[in-house]
Amino acid sequence: MVRTAVLYGVEAVCLLALLYGVALVYVPAAWVLGGLLGVVAVERAHTVRPLATRPKEPTS
Question: Is residue 60 in a domain?
C-alpha cells in the first residue's frame, strides 16, 4: 500500500514538472494539458479494482 502511494506521488510530481515546463513556453497549452491530465486522473481513480485474494484451502 505504501509503495502504491509513493508511486502516485512520484507520478504527480513528474506531471507537475511537465505542466510547469509547458507553462514556461505557452500558458494556455498548459491549461489545456492540465485539464486533460485531470480527466485521465479521475478515470484512473474510478477504474481502480481491489486486489484478488486467493481462496483459503480447506484443512483436513
Answer: no
